[in-house]
Design brief:
alpha+beta, Alpha-Beta Plaits, 2 domains, 7 helices
């Protein structure tokens, strides 16, 4: 004879079904949460690899260029100046004290640069011991004084050292009179100026050269 289904058995069946379905639903929610968490973690890692300098933990070159282009959009000519700053004989730090000390020094320089930025300005390590700073334009003498003050603060770690090790910098400056140029060309002009630094001064930490029309004509001839 067929087995008679009792109310008790039916209740147990319904409860078991509810428990199983609830467990499946909770597992489903857990998997969704795990996928979302992994997505955000991977996205964060990808953003760090793409936009963060591994030595300074600040902007890398790509991030700097994107930010600079955004600042240069729809601004009058000569609103900004791009400063290319190269630490002289930095290799001696790595050779003398090791690469870890060199990296710590680069981060220290980056942090000083960041502390000197004003609203609407950017800085980043571009390659090795070369930094770019996008600053609001001011008279040339003030830009020179500003870079010298930055380098003085960078060298302030020597104040309490018996054996001092001073850092100096070659500095190329391009007053951005063509803000619609692609950013590689803008950087090239600051770099050309920096590489043309010829004057050094015993009582200065930075040696500046502004990009000029003569250099512009030379670049045109070389193309």
């Amino acid at each position: 004879m067929p087995t008679k289904v009792t109310h008790t058995n039916m209740d147990l069946f319904i409860k078991s079904t509810i428990v199983i379905n609830s467990a499946i639903f909770l597992l489903f929610l857990f998997l969704i949460a795990l996928i979302i968490f992994m997505y955000h973690q991977n996205r964060k890692k990808l953003e760090e690899l793409t936009f963060v300098d591994p030595v300074t933990n600040g902007m890398n070159r790509i991030h700097f260029e994107m930010g600079a282009l955004q600042l240069l959009q729809n601004v009058p000519t000569k609103s900004y100046a791009l400063v290319s700053l190269d630490i002289q004989k930095f290799k001696l730090i790595n050779d003398t004290f090791g690469s870890e000390a060199g990296n710590q020094t680069l981060k220290y320089i980056h942090d000083i640069l960041q502390a000197h930025l004003q609203d609407g300005e950017l800085s980043a390590r571009i390659t090795a011991d070369n930094f770019n700073i996008l600053i609001r334009t001011m008279p040339q003498k003030q830009i020179v004084a500003r870079t010298e003050n930055i380098m003085k603060e960078i060298n302030s770690y020597n104040d309490h050292l018996a054996q001092k090790y001073f850092l100096t910098a070659s500095v190329g400056i391009y007053i951005v009179d063509e803000p619609n140029l692609n950013f590689i060309a803008i950087q090239d002009r600051a770099t050309v100026a920096r590489k043309n630094v010829t004057h050094t001064y015993a009582d200065h930490f930075s040696y500046c050269q502004f990009y000029s029309n003569l250099e512009r004509m030379r670049l045109i001839r070389e193309k």
